[in-house]
Amino acid sequence: MKIEELRKEFKTIVQYENVFLKKENEERKKFQRLEFLGDKVLGLILSSLIFNKYKKFSEGKLSRISAHLCSGKILCEIASELRLDTYLKINKIKFSNKGLADTLESILGAYFLKNGFNKTEKIINILWKIKINNIYKIKVDDKTALQEWSQSKKLGLPKYILVKKS
C-alpha cells in the first residue's frame, strides 16, 4: 500500500493535509493531538491483533512484541513502505525519522476519527501484516534477557550499580 492508496481509502485526508504539512503553531497543536491519538489507537489495535493471533504467548512476550511493533523503527519502515517520506519531500517538508513516525501516527489518529475502530483495525492489519507474521525474528535486548533469566530462576530482578559514567 502506498500513500496514494491510503488517500483513496481515507477520502477525507485532504481535510488533514494542512495539519501534516504546515508547521504553524495552531496546526502543530492539531498534529500533536492526532499523533497522540494515533499512538494510542495503534497500540490498542496491535495489542489486540497479537493477543488474538498468538494465544500461547505470555504477557511479557506480548508486551515485548507490542512495543517492538509500535517502535519508531517499525513506524519509519511502514511510513517508507507507504512512501510517506517521498510525499513529505515533494511537499518540501524537512523531517527526521522521528518526524516520519510521528506523521504516520498523526495520519492514523485522523483516520480513526473519520473511519472508526473497525476500518482503522483493517488498515493497520494490512500495513503491519508482514511485521506481525515475522515476530519470531524479534531479538531480545541483553538487559531484558538477563532480567527474564533471573526471574525464571526465582532470583528476582538484578540490582544494577553504576561503576563509571563518562
Describe the structure.
The protein has 166 residues and is mostly helical. Helix content is 73%, strand content 0%. It has helices at residues 3-9, 13-21, 25-53, 59-69, 72-81, 84-90, 97-133, 142-152. Helix 3 runs parallel beside helix 7 and helix 5 packs across helix 7. The model has no long low-confidence stretch (mean pLDDT 84).
Low-confidence parts: none
Calculate the terminal CA-CA distance, rounded to whole Å: 45 Å
Radius of gyration: 19 Å
Query: How can the largest sheet be summarized?
Result: none
Broad shape: globular
How are the elements arranged and paired?
Elements: H1 3-9, H2 13-21, H3 25-53, H4 59-69, H5 72-81, H6 84-90, H7 97-133, H8 142-152
Short description:
This protein is mainly α and 166 residues long. Helix content is 73%, strand content 0%.
Key features of this structure:
mainly alpha, 8 helices, about 170 residues
